[in-house]
Amino acid sequence: MSTPETLLRIDDVEVEYRARGRGAVRAVAGVSLDVAPGQIVGLVGESGCGKSSLARVAVGLAAPSAGTIRFAGRPVTPLGWRRRADDEVGLQMVFQNPYASLNPRRTIGDQLLDGVPGQLGGAARRGRVADLLDRVGMPATAADRYPHQFSGGQRQRLAIARALAPEPRMIIADEPVTALDASSQAQVVNLLVGLVRELDMGMLFISHDLALVHEIADVTAVMYLGKIVETAPTRELWRAPRHPYTRALIDAVPQISATPTLPKPLAGEVPDPSNAPTGCRFRPRCPHAFDPCGTQPPTVDLGGRSAACWLTDPTVAPATAAAS
Amino acid sequence: MALLDVENLAVALPGPRGPLPILHGVSLRVDEGELVGIAGESGCGKSLTAQSLLGLLPPGAKVTGSARFAGTELLGLDARGWQRVRGAGIAMVFQDPTAALHPMLTVGRQLTEHMRVHLRMDRRAANRRAVELLDQVRIPDPERAVRAYPHQFSGGMRQRVAIAIALAARPRLLIADEPTTALDVTVQAGILALLDRLRAETGLAVAFITHDLGVLSSLTTRGYVFYAGRVVETGPTGALLTAPRHPYTAALLGARPHGTQAVGTLRPIPGGPPAPGEAPPGCPFQPRCGYAEPSCGTAPPPLEPVGPDRSAACVVRPHLEVLV
Ligand SMILES: Nc1ncnc2c1ncn2[C@@H]1O[C@H](COP(=O)(O)OP(=O)(O)OP(=O)(O)O)[C@@H](O)[C@H]1O
Ligand SMILES: Nc1ncnc2c1ncn2[C@@H]1O[C@H](COP(=O)(O)OP(=O)(O)OP(=O)(O)O)[C@@H](O)[C@H]1O
Ligand code: SF4
Ligand code: SF4
Ligand SMILES: [Mg+2]
Ligand SMILES: [Mg+2]
Q1: Do B181 and A218 form a contact (C-beta atoms < 8 A)?
Q2: How do the domains of chain A map onto residue ranges?
Q3: Do residue B242 and residue A257 have CB atoms under 8 angstroms apart?
Q4: Contacts of B41 in chain A (CB under 8 A)
Q5: What protein residues have CB closer than 5 angstroms to ion ligand 6?
Q6: From the CB of B43, is ligand 2 less than 6 Å away?
Q7: Assign residue B152 a region: left if phi > 0, alpha if psi is -120 to 50, beta otherwise?
Q8: How many other C-beta atoms are found inside a 10 Å radius of the C-beta of residue B14?
């Protein structure tokens, strides 16, 4: 059961796709994750590891094949986006591609009003739209324009205004700034973080940009091939990663320095989830793989953080091997 | 020695009310075997610069200035001239690998076609080299990969295949337009390592376009920062990014996640770059610049030497403190 401290609770969730001719693809293979009010949880991992699949079931756009999702203590059930119960509009999503959430043929104002709850009179409605636009740093005149009349960064802000319209308590943002350049990224991210702090919302921030997540998330979860391999307070994760995959991700972030230094590539290819390796899923690419890794490592509590790697188990790990 | 020498390149594209100036007197140089970076916000003219070097500008574009490749003037070439340059001199890798790959043809066919046309190789020699090239870009099992179709590869592998195709005709200069922007850091690290290896092994020169300053720093030795169709600063990448001399370079650096700031305090550059044809009369960065003085408003500042092999286009040249 959810404690009052938990806003969104994802418990042992699995997502399976049945692709024609390929059998079942288990894109999410048992993930648990909590988000508290006022907390930003970052979710990072390579392309195809299952981040969007998890986001879609967490927000109720699709049903998980196993496990449960609870929002504010109540189960999230996919009812179709348009017919959701009033208390479920408290959970909103911002997509990577703002075109996915903005209709090109309708004005921004009309689309914002779709999300405004209850019946308001004409003047009050216009006031509400102006408020929402102001929140995301856009002029009230934007209401009468169409999505294509805005730049990528501006469109993403409008999509955020759209998500804020029903006054949500929790936002799931799936790669909200991946398509933007650094300055527009910073504008949109500051906006999101400011809203979370100001309105005491919860946010699950999905990205494959580790540097960005490092900057804003209170807690970071690292996902690899359908499973969360490490979760820790962001600063600790960055300073002392306990899982070799987390270490590889951090090493691959290009850094600015006075002399060119290439980031370290990770060996091997991202495996196909329909054909996941046995034992530890990272084993074929792991520089530290050793005997016990033929068995799936359990997720172990390491005191305020957790990891799923045999190296963290002192009873089996060789003394010399360490993830960091 | 300069392999590519661009001087005063200006490009105007047809607009609703007459030609819209987009590039304003861009000068840049790439030496043999050199890795050069080009950076700047979205819309600043990076891709258009690349397109003018390959004769790929949209119809109706007006071009002035000069661009010499290995001594040959490129601007004003006829169709056959461009074909020769694109065949064996300059090759390009695009941001979206699917744009460069034909979905219905095997990877081997796409690789060998190029070699048979431009290098007049026979089928057997071309096949052998196709396998070699795929091996060079670290595609596993290249003998099998030549018979595969693009959709059978992951995003990172497709981008490496696109690089192999660009290299097929043995170019001396590779223009890579954001080839890793859509990829994960781990896959990106592999592609950066590949380009660096090709430079070391074959003397390939690379002009690498990106808006990620971390990528610029880790791969390239010299860099150009573009703003609103102009080069505003250039120099050895290490110095450029650790001790910038132009307020725009400093502001771009400031907008990146640093991992050293308090949570949620990215520093975006206020506002956005001017739309083509709407730049203010003086320094194009003036409306967003924290160091602007009245003297900035008269004319766009010229690029002037500010140190060994370094230039900046700023009349004030403030003392810049940057956190890197
Ligand atoms: N509708 C679908 N049918 C079948 N397979 C799917 C479907 N959607 C996703 N997948 C597969 O599930 C896996 C996880 O996909 P998902 O989109 O969740 O990844 P992601 O982590 O969001 O990746 P990215 O960073 O590229 O967005 C991938 O292997 C993908 O090919
Ligand atoms: N075919 C075109 N017709 C009209 N304007 C164009 C065309 N292509 C580009 N432009 C304009 O020229 C300017 C420079 O575009 P360019 O594509 O070179 O930018 P960029 O620096 O590559 O940006 P990005 O980082 O988004 O790829 C932009 O303002 C763009 O809107
Ligand atoms: S369990 Fe073994 S293979 Fe998996 S990450 Fe840890 S050391 Fe590597
Ligand atoms: S010339 Fe003036 S406005 Fe332009 S960058 Fe320098 S200080 Fe700023
Ligand atoms: Mg996704
Ligand atoms: Mg471009």
Answers
A1: no
A2: 8-90+166-312, 96-165
A3: yes
A4: 181-184
A5: B 47
A6: yes
A7: alpha
A8: 12
Kindly report, residue by residue over B105-147, the tens digit of the pLDDT. Answer: 999 999 998 788 777 888 899 999 999 999 888 788 899 999 9
- Ligand 2 atom at minimum distance from B178 CA: 27
Rounded Cα distance, A256 and B212, in Å: 10
Alpha carbon A128 to chain centroid distance? 28
**pLDDT (0 to 100) of residue A1:** 44
For chain B, domain boundaries:
2-107+167-220
- Which residue of B134, B185, B241 to mutate against A (max A Cβ within 10 Å)? B185
- Among the partner-chain residues A46, A189, A255, the one whose CB lies closest to the CB of B214 is A255
- Give the span between the Cα atoms of A318 and B2, in whole angstroms: 54
Contact B186 A265 (CB under 8 A): yes
CB contact under 8 A, B266 and A185: yes
Task: Quote the CA–CA distance of B239 and B222 in Å, as a whole number.
Answer: 9
**DSSP string for B161-178:** HHHHHHHTT--SEEEEES
Closest CA to B241 of B133, B320, B153: B320
At B120 the pLDDT is 82
Type of residue numbered A113: L
**pLDDT tens, B244-298?**
999 999 999 988 886 654 555 678 898 888 888 888 999 999 999 999 999 999 9
What CATH number should be reported for the domain whose range is B2-107+167-220?
3.40.50.300
Structure-token pair, residue B83: 């074909």
| Residue B157 to residue A254, Cβ atoms within 8 A | no
Are A19 and A25 in contact by the 8 Å Cβ rule? The answer is yes
Residue given tokens 């963290």 in the structure block: A312
Tokens of A213: 């997540």
CATH number of A8-90+166-312: 3.40.50.300
CA distance A16 to chain B (A): 20
Residue B315 backbone dihedrals phi, psi, to 5 degrees: -80, -25
Q: What is the pLDDT of residues B243-259, one digit of tens each?
A: 999 999 999 998 888 66
Residue of A nearest to B36 (CA): A260
Interface membership of B267 toward A (CB under 8 Å): yes
Sequence-ordered alpha helix ranges (H) in B146-236: 155-167, 185-202, 213-219
How far, in Å, is the centroid of ligand 5 from the Cα of A156?
A: 16
Looking up tokens 């190029």 gives: B114
Nearest Cα of chain A lies from the Cα of B73 at a distance, in angstroms, of 32
What is the mean pLDDT of the segment spanning B46-67?
A: 93
